[in-house]
Amino acid sequence: MVQLLAADGTRTPHAELDAVLEESGLATPERLRGYYRDMVMIRGADLEATNLQRQGQLGLWASALGQEAAQIGAGHASREQDYLVPTYREHGVAWARGIEPWRLLELFRGISHGGWDPNELRTHPYMIVLGSQAPHAVGYAMGLQRDGVVGTGDLSTDAAVLALFGDGASSEGEVAESFTFAASFQAPVVFYTQNNQWAISVPTQVQSRVPLAQRSRGWGIPSVRVDGNDVLAVLGAVRTALDSARDGRGPVFVEALTYRMAAHTTSDDASRYRPAAEEEEWAAKDPILRLRRHLAQLDEIDEQFVARCDEEAHDLAMQLHHHIHGMEDPDPVHMFDHPYAEPHPIVDAERAEYLEYIAQFEDDPSADTATSEEGRA
Ligand SMILES: Cc1ncc(C[n+]2csc(CCOP(=O)(O)OP(=O)(O)O)c2C)c(N)n1
Ligand SMILES: [Mg+2]
């Protein structure tokens, strides 16, 4: 496993990745402070989202607590021209790509159909059906090849795709099929698994008899396993993999070892299936704390900066709170507006049927009068 930052923040040299980080400028002290702030901000938004779900304001929330380095690192390792294909727990990746957290919350409130413009931010909508995004990602990557923006020798314009999925999703047939297409066509795609140790209540050991990173090798897809709680290792490994893919050298698989610190979603109670000792063990490997310790060792962080990040995260949480609490309920009939770009007879029929159905619940003014008169009598 590649690790550049130990849990106590100590930096281990790594010839290959250090060269990539140096050349890319991704690991300057200023950048590192930026990643620290990013992680604190997204954790603040995440905790507030859980609160909002408990207040009945969101239908569900899938927390990314503990996965901040794996996500902020991968998001920032991508270049602007890359296309990212996320799953549903990618809040740090979304943040790094410029997707405002309120858009994520609106999705989990169930009032937004997609959340953002995938072309504008070059980030696909969240995907809940496990593994389904892997073939989309490979197809997109093959499209990039055909557009002539792969392997031209210019890394600043050549593009690649980052396909994100979980350890559990990696067992889906679609992922195996995606490996086949990606390898056969040498598609510019990086498969990125955040192995957060659990797929709801199923531990990773049940998914695979070998480390997940080894799986792709049977397809001839090179792979690397990194410490996913180490933002520097993630940045270095994902940037290296994406640059290799964009350079026309085919797909790469990156497994980031991390931990889902919260329950699977707000509908889950993790204490039913995993021991508290395991949670404590991983709490000691907290990715935010680790980067803070590293910055302290470099003498590149002070108490004011830490306090300012905490304040900003608090302000963001309050903004999200007010935004969500202040939302009007959307007209339910809007759900029929976007399944197809153009009018569709089946959707039209369903809309008409639904309108008829909800009309039954509209208040009948004459019935109201009768009730109130009865009340007076
Ligand atoms: C095809 C499919 N099967 C089952 C589910 C239900 N489901 C949602 S999340 C999940 C576990 C996924 O675990 P993993 O891929 O490790 O991602 P994580 O939730 O840990 O981020 C399951 C089984 C689903 N969404 N899609
Ligand atoms: Mg998982």
TrEMBL record:
Cofactor(s) listed in the protein's UniProt record: thiamine diphosphate
Protein name, UniProt field: 2-oxoisovalerate dehydrogenase subunit alpha
Single GO BP term: branched-chain amino acid catabolic process
Annotated family: Belongs to the BCKDHA family.
Catalysed reactions, semicolon-separated: N(6)-[(R)-lipoyl]-L-lysyl-[protein] + 3-methyl-2-oxobutanoate + H(+) = N(6)-[(R)-S(8)-2-methylpropanoyldihydrolipoyl]-L-lysyl-[protein] + CO2
Matching InterPro entries: Alpha-ketoacid_DH_E1_comp, DH_E1, THDP-binding
Source domain of life: Bacteria
Domain Dehydrogenase E1 component: 37-314
Function: The branched-chain alpha-keto dehydrogenase complex catalyzes the overall conversion of alpha-keto acids to acyl-CoA and CO(2). It contains multiple copies of three enzymatic components: branched-chain alpha-keto acid decarboxylase (E1), lipoamide acyltransferase (E2) and lipoamide dehydrogenase (E3).
Record-linked CDD domains: TPP_E1_PDC_ADC_BCADC
A Pfam family annotated for this UniProt entry: E1_dh
Keywords of the record: Oxidoreductase, Pyruvate, Thiamine pyrophosphate
One Gene Ontology molecular-function label: branched-chain 2-oxo acid dehydrogenase activity
The EC number(s) this enzyme carries: 1.2.4.4
